[in-house]
Structures are given as structure tokens and as C-alpha cells.
Amino acid sequence: MSGNPYQDDRGNRDLSITNPKGIGEIDGTRKSGAARPAPGGPFLIGEAMTGGYGRGADILHGCTIAVEKGQIAVIVGPNGAGKSTAMKAVFGMLDLRAGHVRLDGEDITALTPQARVAKGMAFVPQTNNIFTSLTVQENLEMGAFLRDDDFRGTMEQVFELFPILRDKRRQPAGELSGGQRQQVAVGRALMTRPKVLMLDEPTAGVSPIVMDELFDRIIEVARTGISILMVEQNARQALEIADKGYVLVQGGNAFAGTGKELLADAEVRRSFLGG
Ligand SMILES: Nc1ncnc2c1ncn2[C@@H]1O[C@H](COP(=O)(O)OP(=O)(O)OP(=O)(O)O)[C@@H](O)[C@H]1O
Question: Whole-prediction pTM value?
Fold first, then answer.
């Protein structure tokens, strides 16, 4: 897959590689240089997030993750770095001890996940992200449960994006292949007509070809103006389509930059991309 189609005309928001101490650059407090943040800050930002599960030790330590409208931000890093935890924190599944989450300028830190869905956020977790005993179409209808308008147009868009789902719409989702199930999960999230689509390892367990196809579809979704925030194990491929990449290590930001910058950075390559 080639580079990201958005990078050229949005280059002025892209930030150079930063170290944890330079993290202020990510949230738009950059003090010098040409890059200026969008007025009001990023569309979605989890800023300086610190917290963990229940009464356990903190997993996130001042972690910052952001995505602009219609862009793709990718979180990569070693196993256990806290990538999924950062996603859960942005979605409100974690009580933060410090830090904020802002969507379109509004502080949503105190909102429940359900309230965030109503605000336009959709989250596709890593596992158990479909109803296996329901048909494909029923899964998509479940995605529209918060809507009281006619959602057939949205379902049509999902079928256009993932034609195989139309063919299999009457089949129980549990009978589908891994890649097709992921399409159901993404399709179900899209049924809410989200402004932000959060994906935790959407390509887990699928073949390289299926991964490429899924990434192409994700680019298409971003082109419609939806922001994509995703965690990926396939770091190199994901960074290729990323407007913005974050490398998390031990719950904190180790590197951030455009996908291209991270792919070109010698240390990032050596430490996180297998050379
Ligand atoms: N529900 C939970 N309760 C308590 N601790 C958890 C929970 N989920 C994750 N953790 C812990 O949080 C830390 C970070 O896990 P997390 O799943 O966020 O990492 P990750 O970067 O997504 O890893 P991976 O790449 O392996 O999926 C780990 O030490 C993990 O054991």
C-alpha cells in the first residue's frame, strides 16, 4: 500500500518526533516552529492521561493520544505497553486519576462510555466485538440501537464498503471468517454514524491480504470525515496509512510523529519495527 493520501495537504499539523518530555508538542502547545495546532486543539484528545484498573497500580503515565477530523492516528508499541488501556481511557472505560479527554473542544472526561457513544464515538474492542448467534444484518441493526431515525441508508453504505456483508447478511455472524467478522464489527460501529471510530487491533489474526484490504477500507472511512484512532500490532503497515503515529512504552509516550516520520526514524525502526 502506498503512503497516506492525506499527508500532503495536512502536513502543517504534523509534528516532529518527540520524546516524553516534549509531549507538550503533541497537544498543541508547541512553542516554536512552523507547525501550528488547529484552533481549539485536536478533534479528539486524551491528554496527559494517568490511571489504571480499579485500585491497581497506574498503567498509563501521562499518556497523550490525539486525532484530527478525518485523519488516522495509530497507536503502536510492545506488548503490555498500555495501548488498549489508552483506548479504553479515551472511551471512558477507565477512571483517570489525572488528565482529560476532549472531543471537539468539549471536556468529556466525566462521561460514561454510553454518553460518549451519544456524542459520536464508536469503539470496536479487540475481542467479543460481534454477536455470533445473530445474523450479520441483525448485528448491524444492533449498532443502530441508539438511533430513532431511518438507518437503512447507513446500512447501505456499510454494504457498499463491505460487499461481502450484503451477501452474507442472513448468515449468523459466528459462521464468518476472521476478516469478515472484523468487517461486521466495524460495520456495526459505523451504524451509529460516529464522528470518531476507535479500533483495537482490527487486523488481529487475519492474513496479510485481508489486512491490506481492511486498511484500504479504513482509509475510505477516514475520507468521509470520520476520525480513526486505532491500536495495531502490524505497526509498520499501520504507520504507512497513519497521519499520526504514537509509540507507547510502559504507559507513556515514547515517540510521536507522522506515520512517515516514525517509519523513517532509526530508533523507532530498530526498537519497534524489527529493524
Ligand atoms: N482489565 C484489566 N485489569 C487489570 N489490569 C489490566 C487489565 N487489562 C490490562 N491490564 C494490564 O494493563 C497493562 C497494559 O495492558 P494493555 O492490554 O493495555 O497493553 P497493550 O499495549 O494493549 O498490550 P498487547 O499489545 O499485548 O495487547 C498490562 O500490564 C495488563 O496486564
Answer: 0.86
